[in-house]
Amino acid sequence: MSEVALSQTPDRSEQDMERLADLAADVIRRARAAGASQAEVAASISSGLNVNVRLGEVETVEHTRDRGFGLTVYFGQRKGSASTADLNPDSIQATLDQACAIARYTEEDPAAGLADAARMATSFPDLDLWHPWSIDTAQAIELGIAIEDAGRAHPGISNSDGASVQAGEGLSVYANSHGFVGRERGTRHSLSLALIAGDDDGMQRDYWYDSVRAAGDFMSAQALGDKAAERTLARLGARSLSTRQCPVLFVPELARGLIGHLLNAVSGGALYRQASFLLDQVGKPVMPAWLDINERPHLARGQGSANFDAEGVATVDSALVERGVLARYMLSSYSARKLGLSSTGNAGGIHNLVVDAGAADGERSDFDGMLARLGTGLLLTEVMGQGVSTVTGDYSRGASGFWVENGKIAYPVEGITIAANLRDMFNGIVAVGSDVDIRSHLLTGSILLDRMTVAGE
Question: What would be one Pfam family of this protein (predicted)?
Fold first, then answer.
């Protein structure tokens, strides 16, 4: 697929970022003049096109153009924040006045303040994140219909929940009174399709999607439609299971959810509130000794790539789990001060977390190889509900997927619940596949666990 500009106008992103940077610097100067000892500004402009079609007809067309401006001021260690979506001078001044008024009446917080000046990013290599997509409404509709037609052409597909085509681009500037000004621009585009199949046993629904920085990296409309149809039809004839304990293989798009639970447990907010089952675990084993998880913030076209975090702190390659041992927490400057530690450059979140493929025997396996490693057990393709506790690590969710026997898929299953404790789940990882899902900033293949409780009939 081709990639040019989302709108038909010339690319003004560089000029718009400079305008945001000038505005941020001016507001910081005015905040200091109003008595603030420190100040920081985050400003953004985003635009996009979102088209939804169903059964060959247009359902919705949405063009968006949003602006955001947020200001935080510090009077000593008293903090005030205010924001607006209007970049007109009067609105900016009102936002500044409001932030200063809030700060003057809040309690002092010893952990409040900007990140350390010495930690500010000074290098800004091009991470290849800017790929505007020249697609107008008519072309997006045509593409959506082509995706849906590809899926609906499969025998057994009885209905459609529709196809979606989204193109988006965003600019942002973060600046603070250390003199730091960071500029970022990036694009995100996506395609998706949800289908319905039915037989004498009932109806089943499933979907597929693709998400990229550059439209030229999309899978084809035919391939996306085929994948959505294949997944939907495979669910027909689903049955339940008797209650048992067995190995469970999480497909990559669910495996990254497991890694997300790890991140929640090692995030500064959970730790300083003492609301994490991984409290005081740095330097201790939390996963098998063969497993490494690393943050890689500077991957070209990465979904989470960035040269600096939400406080301007430079991002760096860093181990999170090294040979199974928790190497560090995930901290902003605020949470770091609360814990008596230093920022890890993770204000705003993690930047491209890579889970290394492998197993205790040193072998790497693709998806078919992971099914062979599973042998007989549950292949998990969907989880439901919110039954995960970061405080205790208890994990219990509704689920569906496939029962696997001797490394081969035997039949689909649904109406089951899987349960365990995250601490045991992390320690019970048998293997991580090489079938990495690149549609996220959490980069992992499928993950095989030695056992979980599966409750069904």
Answer: PmbA_TldD_2nd
Q: Do 428 and 450 meet the contact criterion of CB atoms below 8 Å apart?
A: yes
pLDDT mean over 44-63: 97
Provide the 8-state DSSP code for 290: T
Give the integer Cα–Cα distance in Å for 435 and 254. 12
Q: CA-to-CA distance for 331 and 342, rounded, in angstroms?
A: 8
Residue type, 36: A
Question: 433 pairs with which residues across the strands?
Answer: none
According to DSSP, residue 232 is labeled H
For residue range 323-363, list pLDDT tens digits in order: 999 999 999 999 999 999 999 999 999 999 999 999 999 99
- HSE on the CB side for 356, CA within 13 Å? 20
Maximum distance among all Cα pairs of the chain, rounded to whole angstroms? 73
Residue 237 structure tokens: 């004839």
Contact present, 295 and 317 (Cβ < 8 Å): yes
Is the alpha carbon torsion for 132, 133, 134, 138 positive or negative?
negative
Separation CA 239–CA 197 (nearest Å): 16
Phi, psi dihedrals of residue 105, rounded to the nearest 5°: -115, 5
Please give the CATH topology (third level) of the domain spanning 13-234. Answer: PmbA/TldD fold (3.30.2290)
Cα Rg of the chain, angstroms:
24
Question: Would you say 242 and 456 are in contact if contact means Cβ atoms under 8 Å apart?
Answer: yes
**In DSSP terms, which residues pair with 53 in a beta bridge?**
58, 163
Q: Where are the domains of the chain?
A: 13-234, 244-455
Rounded CA-CA distance 435/367 in Å is 6
Question: In whole angstroms, what is the distance from residue 455 CA to residue 52 CA?
Answer: 38
The angle, 0 to 180 degrees and rounded to 10, between the axes of the packed helices 13-33 and 89-105 is 40
Q: Is the pLDDT of residue 431 over 60?
A: yes
Other residues' Cβ atoms within 10 Å of the Cβ of residue 72 = 22
The residue type of 84 is T
Six-digit token string for 384: 């439901």
Q: How far apart are CA 84 and CA 73, in angstroms?
A: 15
Residues whose CB falls within 8 Å of the CB of residue 236, separated by 6 or more in sequence, listed in order: 156, 197, 198, 199, 201, 204, 412
Output the CA angle 167-317-255, nearest 5 degrees.
Answer: 60
Give the per-residue pLDDT at 4: 34
Q: How confident is the model at residue 9 (pLDDT cuts 50, 70, 90)?
A: low
Question: What's this model's pTM, rounded to 2 decimal places?
Answer: 0.94
Which pLDDT value is given to residue 7? 45
- Give percent above pLDDT 70 in the chain: 98
* Residue labelled with tokens 């959505």: 228
Average pLDDT of every residue of the chain: 95
